[in-house]
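Supplementary notes for students who missed Thursday's class. We covered one full example, reproduced here. Read the sequence, then the structure, then the short commentary at the end.
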Amino acid sequence: MLRIPGVRVVEVVRVAPTRRGGTVGNFSPTAPRLARQVFGVASGKGGVGKSTVTTNLAAALALEGLWVGVLDADVYGFSIARMMGVRERPEVHEGRIVPARRDGVQVVTMGMLVGPEEAVVWRGPMLHKALRTFLHEVAWEDLDVLLLDLPPGTGDVALTVAQELPYAEWLVVTTPQPAAVEVALRAGRMAEKVNLKLAGVVENLSWYRPTPDGPVLYPFGEGGGQEAAARLAVPLLAQIPLDPAVRECADRGEPVVWAEPDREVSRRFRELARVVVPREAAQRR
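Structure (token representation):
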């Protein structure tokens, strides 16, 4: 771990075995809350736009006047640093990592510790330790909302988050096609198994309109988000259109919600923010 740029000290902690068979979601019942609301943004597979939803939802929540944090829990496939435009090495104050800041959003990601082309090659115990560091050794500043960009699937990271943050809620991201819906359902079922609350489903890439007055096209089919929400018995929170501006803005390191607020896709993300955290709760203190 010391070979990774930015990592100068490694603490080796021996953990006593824990009894199996307990409720995973109750692993850390006394852990202090990191924010008033914590959402894990999950999906069953990659490529559905989970990180896009995370960054733009964070940007939209900040526009609502909330103190927002983003934790890139996708340690192996981190992308939040590029999409949020944060590359500076993190500072450490009194033994705690100081998050990067971007227009009011606090960000912590492996992308601040390693280069964009460097691979993180860790086994499960190291991954668990890194996540616990990001969760509990970061100087988050009085957050209203913390968003965790989770890796695809239902593996170690999702279980660690469930153990460490039993009060977190899951936002399940899918696209309309059946293959994406099937694996999104697995992410939702995993949350149920570990007693996490499912906040709802977000359908990304729902439709595409080539021109402002042109027809609406459905390149990935229709109805997947509704089906996933119905089968999980949760609300369909938003349907986000396919818009090339989302990718273009992310490549520049700026969420489309900030860069082009008048676009339909930006309005949809603002609506999602108001559903996830209603206006009466969106008051910065």
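Commentary. The CA atoms of residues 97 and 138 lie 5 Å apart. The chain is about 30% helix and 20% strand. If anything here is unclear, bring it to office hours.
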